[in-house]
Amino acid sequence: MAELRFVTTWWLEAPIDEVYRAIAEAPCWPAWWKSLCAVEELAPGNREGIGRVYRTTWQSRLGYRLCFEVRVTRVLPGRLIEGVARGDVQGTGRWRLSEEGRVTRVRYEWRVRPVRRWMALLAPVAGPLFAWNHHAVMQDGAEGLARRLEARLLATSHD
């Protein structure tokens, strides 16, 4: 299976603590992230969130849905959340937050392999379409989070 690797960075004019709280509360994401259909918490994890398990269902811009679970494996409160995904995709995701003045930088790294047969077969040639879709979904997240926090989204980048 081909591995897909994406890095997205958001710059928000908002306090890092507010941004972190919003990202750490995945069950609330569908209220502000329009590409996210549903989040169900399957396990609460410990006080920091390690061990927390979510099932998420995403609607792609290409017409298909993805469903996968994420288990939080590492947390540095206010700065980092890492997790392992399994389901329609499997791999890792990592949120890293940093702050400069009134600007919070959110960097999301997503390294996954498609598990669905059709996606795995197409990934070597459809990589650019999957990347376009991922970037569009992440842009939805950036804009939604900015609205949720009543903050200015200063920029986004997709590597």
UniProtKB/TrEMBL annotation:
Keyword rRNA-binding assigned: no
Record-linked InterPro entries: COQ10_START, START-like_dom_sf
Gene3D superfamilies hit by this protein: 3.30.530.20
Protein name in UniProt: Polyketide cyclase/dehydrase/lipid transport protein
Domain Coenzyme Q-binding protein COQ10 START: 13-123
Membership in a protein family: Belongs to the ribosome association toxin RatA family.
Keyword annotations of the record: Toxin-antitoxin system
